[in-house]
Amino acid sequence: WIDFSTNSISCFNKIKRKLDNRIINFIDAPISGGNLKAKSGELSIFVGGKKTTFNKVKTILNLLGKNIYVLETFGAGYAAKIAQVSLCYLNYLSLSEALMIGVKSGIKPKLMLDIIDKSASGGFTSSKYGPHMIDGSYDSSFSLGLSYKDLILANEIIRSKKMDLPVTNLTTKIYKKAFQKYGKKVNHLQVIKLIEESNKKVLH
Fold first, then answer.
1. Among 14, 81, 181, 193, which one carries the catalytic annotation?
2. Which residue numbers delimit the 3-hydroxyisobutyrate dehydrogenase-like NAD-binding domain (predicted)?
């Protein structure tokens, strides 16, 4: 049994117990990369579970993914996927605030983004998602509802491991507010509208 979904730890535990009772091998293998990477077979796959089980299905996984991480602990695939996407959501908010500082100080959005891109703080987030912030499209590749769902799952892991992660907690609260205000179907970067509205300034 291969679970490619981005699932909750509680749901994972229920599935695993049922499969263990039936002596069915199980791995959690959530994926990352979106539709384009899926079509090209270049997904990232985070595999939790026994390596012996992975070896039985790796031919299938190799057809789907380019970067396959074998983590060898049940549930670790879910945790790895949620950890890396949670960082994305933190980065989106941080980037929008940096842009806001510049724009409110009279710097044109495109120029401020270029400054960030060419600085130590620049990187994948600013180069790929910054343009969607300053053109007002808010990126249609993902929804706000799914973003918020990921952060709910992150907080479930945080509670289960008794961790104290205040930045992730604050990020979740911001996404919850955006989710309640704009709905689940809007483009995921529409979360930054909260920052635009509170500062009475759009970034585009």
1. 81
2. 75-195
Q: Would you call 39 a catalytic residue per the annotation?
A: no
End-to-end CA distance of the chain: 47
pLDDT in tens, 34-44: 888 888 999 99
* Backbone phi, psi, residue 28, to 5°: -95, 130
Question: Angle CA(195)–CA(196)–CA(202) in degrees, nearest 5?
Answer: 155
Give the chain's domains with CATH numbers.
Answer: 2-74 (3.40.50.720), 79-198 (1.10.1040.10)
Residue-wise pLDDT tens digits, 138-168: 999 999 999 999 999 999 999 999 999 999 9
Contact 133, 96 (CB under 8 A): yes
Both tokens of 11, joined, read 């749901």
